[in-house]
Amino acid sequence: MTAPAQPLPTAAEAGPDAVLLWVVLPYVALAVFVLGHIWRYRYDKFGWTTRSSQLYERRLLRIGSPLFHFGILVVLLGHIGGLVIPKSWTEAVGIGESAYHLGAVVLGTIAGICTLGGLAILVYRRRTVGPVFSATTKNDKAMYVSLTATIVLGLAATVAANLVGGGYDYRETISPWFRSIFWFRPDPDRMTGAPVLFQLHAISAMLLFGFWPFTRLVHMLTAPLGYLTRPYIVYRSRDTRLGARAPRRGWERVG
To answer: Over the stretch 197-214, which tens digit does the pLDDT of each residue have?
Structure first.
């Protein structure tokens, strides 16, 4: 005979500090993230760019940029899998806790090191290459500090809890709290018992997402899908014969 299911704790049962950090802050960050992107796209379309500095320096960029983007992509996919997919789902398809834990720790640590290493190269390049440094704004500097803090705290939490400590199953606490935000049934009590490094990582991530729409990071939400269907740009044609049929749209002869 199974025990009756216990009701989920509500935000009203948590202390004021817990409500502020794990209920108010997430919704503020989410609202600023969404509305900020809408505002940015509407009023600053020409600023929706990475402001590429490839023309100034390429050697360090060729190393740091792929390393950073590869690492951050794996980190993002890992967070989506760990926070969005319930533990019961992975167990239902035969992935036990030990196997999931091992894969998450190994891949997460490698991806975190790649991300941090690539970011260190990019920051070093931006600081030591004169033209690149001259093109760096105060907004860029604040973004790099926020992004670095979030990555370092996440990597430190993983190492401290899983490699140095006895392990921590964040899918029992942090993941349910994260999903409860989107179900509009916030459960701050889940986060009050999480390790401090995990709490600091979550707070820094929320602050970063609130700052996100006003930085060059907006380019990560832009997928150049038009590149797949647009025609080639023909600058000069050696063919003097135009042909009998009218050219397709976008393939008109120029000059």
So the answer is: 999 999 999 999 999 999
